Amino acid sequence: MQLTNSISEYGLVSKLFHWLTFVALLIQIPMGFYLVDLDYSDYRIFIEDIHVTLGLSIFYLVLFRLLYKFINPTPALPPAIFSGQKIIAKLNHFALYICLFSVTISGILKKLFNGESLPFLFKIKLKSDFDKADFFYDIHIFSNYTLIALISLHILAVIIHRVLFKDNILKRIT
User: Model's pTM, two decimal places?
Assistant: First the structure.
C-alpha cells in the first residue's frame, strides 16, 4: 500500500485520517447525547473532560486532514459514476468538513464563553458571557444533528453503490 493518494486510490495517510475521524465520531457523538442527560457531578465533569479532549482532537485531526488534502489531491471518482453523483459526493464532503468545524468550534466557544479555559495550542480563557455560550451551544447542537444527517447520507451512498450500482466504492478508502 502506498503512503500518498494515487489517481484511483487513497493512500495510507488519507485512509488513516478518514478512519480515525470515523472512530472518534463514533465515540464522540453518543458521548455528547449521554452528557445531555447527566446531572452535574464529578462524574459528569470527568465525561465532559473526555468529550472536550476528544473534540479538540477531532478539530486538529480534521484540520490536518484538510491541509493534507490540499497537498495531496483526492483520487478521481470512477468514470462510470455520472456527473450528478460526483456533484452530490463533492457537496456532501464539503458539508461534512463545514459541519465538523462548526461542531468543534462552537463547542470550543461555548466552553470559553462559560468562563472555562481550554488547552488549545496554548491555554485560552475568555470573559464569561452566558448569552454567547448559549448561542454557541445552540449552534453546537444544530451542527451535530446536521453532521449526523450528513454521515448517514455518506453511509447510505456507500450502501446504494454496493446494492444498486454493484460497485464497491468503499474499497477506495479501506
Answer: 0.90
| φ, ψ (nearest 5 deg) of residue 122 | -145, 170
The DSSP call for residue 38 is P
Q: What is the mean pLDDT of each run of 10 residues along the chain (174 residues)?
A: 88 96 97 94 94 94 95 85 88 96 96 85 81 97 98 94 85 86
d(CA 53, CA 31): 12
Q: What are phi and psi of 134, to 5 degrees?
A: -65, -40
Q: At what angle do helices 12-36 and 42-71 cross, to 10 degrees?
A: 150
Say whether 89 sits in a helix, a strand or coil: helix
Query: Residue 123, SS3?
Result: strand
Q: Which residue has the cell 453523483?
A: 85
> Rounded to whole angstroms, how far apart are CA atoms 154 and 33?
21
Q: How many other CB atoms are there within 10 angstroms of residue 151's CB atom? A: 18
Kindly tell me the sign of the dihedral angle through the C-alpha atoms of 64, 62, 23, 160: negative
For residue 120, the model assigns a pLDDT of 66
